[in-house]
Design brief:
193 residues; single chain; 10 helices
Amino acid sequence: MHRETEAQVSNPRKRNGHRRRLEQQRWRHMQADCYICYRPIDYTLRSPDPYILMLAGLWIFLYNTRMGLGIRASSFDTNTASLMGINVNFVAMIVFLLSGAAAGLAGCFYGMKYSVFPSMGAIANKGFVAATIGGLGSLTGAVISGLLLGFLETMIAGYVSSTYRDLIAYAMLVIVLIFMPNGILGKGMHDKI
């Protein structure tokens, strides 16, 4: 089929439609490089797929590998873990590597959705609050408390005032630490033994 150029289209309505089609083709061509997991970036940031994949990978790594067992043993008691033959320094290096990679990936996704600015690291405070409320060392508790904290902050910002959003987060942290010092799903020392 013969494609008409813009100059060859004589009808003004056809000309505008042709321009629109050309712009859409250019836009589709520009978007072709902006795909993650075979989906456009816009859709990826709204879908929880990359976050669920990252969480599932971390869960599988911690609970189904020998290194994950070493990490969990070292988090309980480093002296006993080193006596059992676990290289505690190597485990610490792996933990720092994993935490840095997870933080970098989260920063990339956050930077793609919102603007990047020098003080954007303040969002890490909310991550610390969520991890502490859920229980340090409990992956499930951190996820549940992060979702709960986000829900409560959104409801407070929507129905009361957005200035109280941070107040609610830190008040929730103080209340949980007073009544449950180990967090919601954290384990006490007698539970770990």
